[in-house]
Amino acid sequence: MLNENPSITNHPELPNPLGFAPLRQQKSSRRTTSIDVTWPQEMRGTMAFDAIARDIYTAENTVDFLVIQQDNLLDSIDADRYIKAISANPKLANVEEFVGHRGGGHLRLALDEIYGEDQQRDYRPAFLLIDDISGASLVAPWARSKWPKLEPEHSLGPETIRQIRQKMEGVCIGFAPGNSAFSSPLDQSIHRSAKVPPLHHPEDPDGWHQLPEHNSITMRRARRIDLWLDEDIEVDAMFQDSASLPEGGREAVHEYHLQVSAEANTGIIKRNQITPHILPFPECPRAVNNAQKMVGTPLSELRHSVLENLRKTNGCTHVNDALRALADVS
After folding, report:
1. What is the pLDDT averaged over residues 178-200?
2. N vs C: which end of the chain shows fewer Cβ within 10 Å?
3. What is the reported pTM?
4. Per-residue confidence at 185, pLDDT binned at 50, 70, 90?
5. 295-308, pLDDT tens digit by residue?
6. Which residues, at least 6 apart from 240, have a Cβ–Cβ distance to it below 8 Å?
7. How far, in Å, CA of 6 to CA of 270, rounded?
8. What span, in angstroms and rounded, lies between the C-alpha atoms of 192 and 281?
9. Among 201, 215, 269, 284, CA closest to 3
10. CA separation for the pair 280, 255 (Å, rounded)
11. 35-54 pLDDT tens trace
12. Could you give the C-alpha distances from 326 to 174, 247, 305, in angstroms and in order?
C-alpha cells in the first residue's frame, strides 16, 4: 500500500508505461541511444558497457531514412564506478583519457576538460554516451535485484535497504529528507517499477538501432529524441532505465516522456511538457513542476542550466539527464 500521508503526491496513475516509439514523421531527425550493462563472470564484479548512439534523418518517405552518424562505445567500469577501459568506434581522439575517472559529476567535468565546450558542439553522439556513464553506472546494480535466484546476495533485507537509501539522502527530490524512501518500517510496495514493451514500433522496426540481445542480467538506459521544424522547433523525447527479467521481457524503474517547443531562430524553450510514466517513489513526480524553470532557456544552454537550477532536492536525477540531453537539439 502506498504511503497515505496527504502531503505526498501519490500520482495513482503511475506506473503507466509509455509504450513503443511513435512512427517517424516526415522531414524529421531521430537520435536513439542505448547503454547495456552486463556483469561478465570473468571480470569479477566489473560492469561491461555496450553503448550505441545513432542519428538518422527521415525525408518525405517515412519508410526510408539516412544514417547521419552512429557511435559505439565499449567500457569496463569497476564496482566503485571507476573506468578501467574505454574504446570508441569510429575512433574518438583522446577517449582513453577517461580511464581512471569515476562516474558522477567529476566525469562530466572531465568531458569538458578533455574535449572543451566548443568541440562538443559538433554533437557527435559519442559525447552523450560518455556523459551517460555517470547515471547508468549508478542505476545499474538495481537490475541484479530482479534475478534473486541467480543473485541471492542481492535479495537485501529491510535494514540493508534502509542503509543504502540513507546514503542517498538529499541527492534528489525522491530522496529528500522525510520522504517515503525512508519510511519505517520500510514498505517495499512504495518502490515502484513496471514491465515495459519493446522500444521499437512494430510497424517501424528500423526506428531504433539494433539493440544487443542478452539471456542474463542486464541494465539498459535508453533514449529517443525526435525533432522536426514547424513554426517552432518541436521535440518529442523519452528516457528509460530498464532491467532484463528471468522470464523474459524487461521491467523499468524510470521512464519519462518530454514534449518541448522552442523558438526556431533563438532555440529558446517556449513549452516544456514532461510526463512521468514510471518512477520509484511517490514524491518523484514533483520534480516535473520544478522543471518548468527551464522555459525561457535556450536549448544549447540546458547542460549547465539544468545543473544550476534543478540541483539535488529541487530536481530528479533522471529528468535532469533527459533535459540535459536536449542541448544537442539546437
Report:
1. 79
2. N
3. 0.91
4. low
5. 999 999 999 999 99
6. 18, 196, 199, 220, 221, 222, 223, 252, 254, 255, 256, 278
7. 33
8. 6
9. 284
10. 10
11. 999 999 777 789 999 999 99
12. 23, 35, 12
